From TrEMBL:
SUPFAM superfamilies: ApbE-like. This is FAD:protein FMN transferase. Keywords: FAD, Flavoprotein, Magnesium, Metal-binding, Transferase. It is an enzyme of class 2 (transferase). Its cofactor is Mg(2+). InterPro entries: ApbE, ApbE-like_sf. GO terms for molecular function: metal ion binding; transferase activity. It comes from Eiseniibacteriota bacterium. It catalyses: L-threonyl-[protein] + FAD = FMN-L-threonyl-[protein] + AMP + H(+). The lineage of its organism: Bacteria, Candidatus Eiseniibacteriota. Its EC number is 2.7.1.180.
Length: 175
């Protein structure tokens, strides 16, 4: 949660100096305030965990924080298997149910914490918790044998757009 805290503190310092709008990004922990010039919302790309495309789609947001937790940047390959850096506290082993979780919250510190927590919970529990907890909204990327399932929380449905040219490689589901 340290990166999220840092982003929150940076925005507080900027706001104290009179800033009205900014997009702050510290390794995927973001704070979006106000809007960019000539637009009403910030356009944030959601990365493809397999790196085939720069993004799988975009979120159009303002006045919120977001973070993405995933196992696709920090990992170890051992014996033909990839192990991510996010560990399940119950087993001590890396989690592998989800490939990425993007969360939208009020503060970057909340986003940092919720992203990791939902990632560790796995698909079904993460959906349940995200729906129950009103301070967090989530997008979950679940790998399947032939394509990814993108689980989008109902409250983010109108804010997310998948890239049309790659839509056939993903299955979009609302929870």
């Amino acid at each position: 949660i340290a990166k999220g805290y840092g982003v929150d503190r940076a925005w507080s310092a900027m706001e104290a100096q009179g800033a009205k709008a900014a997009l702050l990004n510290l390794s995927g922990n973001m704070m979006l305030r106000g809007s960019p010039p000539n637009r009403t919302k910030w356009s944030i790309g959601i990365r493809d965990p397999k790196g085939r495309w720069p993004s799988i789609g975009t979120l159009e947001l303002t006045n919120c924080a977001l973070a993405t937790s995933g196992a696709y940047e920090q990992f170890v390959d051992e014996g033909g298997k990839r192990f991510g850096h996010i560990l399940d506290p119950k087993t001590g082993w890396p989690t592998d149910d989800l490939h990425a979780v993007t969360v939208v919250t009020e503060t970057a510190m909340q986003a940092d914490a919720w992203g990791t927590a939902l990632f560790v919970l796995g698909t079904e529990q993460a959906k349940e918790v995200a729906k129950r907890e009103t301070i967090v909204q989530a997008i979950l990327l679940e790998p399947k044998s032939d394509k990814y399932v993108i689980w989008i929380e109902e409250s983010l449905r109108s804010s997310f757009a998948i890239r049309p040219e790659i839509a056939e490689h993903f299955e979009l589901r609302i929870f």
